[in-house]
Amino acid sequence: MNLLGSLFKSSIGKKILMALTGLVLFGFVTGHLVGNLQIFLPPAKINAYAHMLESLGAGLWLIRGFLLLCLVIHVWLAIQLTLENRAARPQAYGAEHVIRATLASRVMARTGIVVLAFVPFHLAHYTLRVGSPGWSEHTFRLTDGTLVRDVHTMMVQGFSNWLVSGFYVIAVGVLAYHLSHGIVSAVQTLGLKNEKWAGQVERFAAAYCWLYFLLNAAIPLAVLGGFVKLAA
Ligand code: HEM
Hints:
The chain has about 230 residues and is mainly α.
């Protein structure tokens, strides 16, 4: 049997694949946040950035395909491991184990489901622009004269809705909570967390997740608060 096949079969292999796909998705959400923070710069910046991504053409589709594959593997293995754990629980876990597990670790499936519900909503909102076809027609002229899609206006108009912004804040909060255990768990599964580093890994995960949540939430809140406005 090849290595990939055996990884998908054994419990530890599934955990390693979950850790690796989780780290890829973690890299994506971090990069996505850094890109989105350009909303706090003059509109030309985020519009040029979105245009650069679109100009990747086939490369962008390769990246999208790879991310989707990682998401599918991550979710599929999460379901399998949850079912396996449930089936083994009466023998394998005593009360003490349950008490010692953190709340974030115990609600991973629930937080994962919320994030999974957010992704199609988000893609329909900003990538497919369902219900707001006008957003595809907004254009912006960069300083070099190139006419590009106006992502800045789309984001300001999108986040001007309290309900939509509220859902984003909740979703990124839930994702940050999911990551707070996910990071520690992935590092442990990959054998990178030893006694010496354990404290540092946990502190890094907690600090990262708070920062991730606050910076993400700042985007819709800044629009609602009138700090980020439509270009004059
Ligand atoms: C406040 C938080 C977020 C903001 C402001 C935001 C903003 C955006 C915007 C504006 C786009 C469309 C870009 C364009 O039209 O060119 C987009 C696409 C996307 N976002 Fe987000 N996003 C946020 C959080 C997230 C999270 C938490 C995830 C994943 C869990 C995510 C996943 C994606 C994906 C997969 C795409 C599609 C990328 C593509 O078209 O290839 N976003 N986001």
